[in-house]
Each structure stands twice: as C-alpha cells, then as structure tokens.
Amino acid sequence: MTTHRTEKKRGIAYTRIINATLQDKQLSWKARGILSYMLSKPDNFKFHLDMLAEEAPDGLDSVKAGVKELERLGYIRRYPTKIKGKIVAWNMDVYEKPQMDFPQVEKPLVENPTLITNDLITNELNKKDIKVYTELTFGGHPFLYIYNSYFKQVFKKEHMGVTQEQLDLILSWINELEDMGIDDDGFEEKTSEHFNKLPSSNNGNIIAFRQASRRYFDVEILF
Tell me: the pLDDT tens digits for 18-45? Predict the structure, then answer.
C-alpha cells in the first residue's frame, strides 16, 4: 500500500500540523478533522459553529459534539467578550498542542435582580428608534446558533436582525438559563418543541421564545 502525496509547489496553499496532534488517540476522527480544518485557516480567523456546520455535510449537532470534545481536551478555548459586564460575543481560540491550564470562565453575577413583566420589556425595546441591526448569531453563543438553525428550517431564511439592546437582553436571558442548569441539549429540546407548536401568526422571533421561558423551562427569569 502506497501513500501518494501532492508536491508542495509555490503558489499552492497547504497546512503543516505536528504529527503528535493528528495522531492523538484521545481525539475522535471527527475532532481531528475539525481541528485540521481550523488550523488551516489564518491565525486571526473567527470561528462560529454554524459556519463550521456549513463547511461539511455532518450537520450542526455533529460539529457541536466535535468542538466540545476539542474544548474538553484542551485544543479549543471558548471565552466571552464583555461590554459593561454583559456578554456580547463568544470567542474560540484554537491550539495546535493541547493546553490544560485555561482560566475558568466566570458567569456574570446578577445583583439585586428585579422581576420585569413581558409588557415592560417590550415597551422598553420600542422606546428608542434604533436603526442599527445585527445578525442574531453575532452574539456568538451556542444557544443562538441552535435557535437560528431551527428558524432557518422553518422559515427558509436567517433570523431577523436584532438591535444591540435586544441582543444584550437575549444574552442576559441565556446567562440566566445557564446559571439554572440549562445546557445545549436542553435548550435545543425546548427550541424544537417551540417551533413544532409555533402558530402561523408567530414570526419566530427569539424574543417571543424568551418571553415564554417560564412555560418551556419551568424557571423564573430574573434580571
């Protein structure tokens, strides 16, 4: 049996990865493939789960599992970007050699939480005429990619744009869900249930899903 390699000529892009990484027996073949793809990108490349899922036929669930494996074994570090104490994006650093001394990511604490009614939240969002909108997945959190994936399946398009104020509100809600023990699988289960029951009059906006948190997650959202 012979391995046939391509000659590395000038002008042909290729990637050099240390053998110890590609031959790490702790890594599944899936994880090795995802890591190899990520290492083939420029050092400042910004990775997101839905983008990775679009680059192969495996699907989002498979990519999430591979990324979680790489994170657990020290090849990926996920950490939040915060503005004024609020998470506005999640970042991924990729390592060719595993690193096991990452600092723990602290969840923001909520001091003196105030219960806000859904009507008050909606009114507050409508008070300002904000013209700048961004994609929902700009927030970078896995929950956002999960919700957007189901939205695309139902409506055949990306989730509608959200204002920065709305995105902050959504990310704060997600932080509360995580503090109460909701993980990716739990969020996806309830997202699927939500879209299966979605009436024709509902446009699928994640803010409406957030407002139904108590019904779906049996938790009181406080912030």
Answer: 999 999 999 999 999 999 999 998 888 8
Q: How many whole angstroms separate alpha carbon 166 and alpha carbon 132?
A: 11
Q: What is the pLDDT of residues 61-113, one digit of tens each?
A: 898 899 989 999 999 988 777 777 766 667 889 999 998 775 555 443 333 33
φ, ψ of residue 93 to 5 degrees: the values are -100, 140
Task: Give the residue from 133, 197, 152 showing the smallest Cα distance to 212.
Answer: 197
Closest CA to 15 of 48, 37, 46, 47: 37
- CA dist 96 → 31, 77, 99 (Å): 13, 12, 9
The helix or strand, by DSSP H or E, that contains position 87, with its residue range, turns out to be: strand 86-94
Instruction: Quickly tell me which residue has 């912030």 as its tokens.
Output: 223
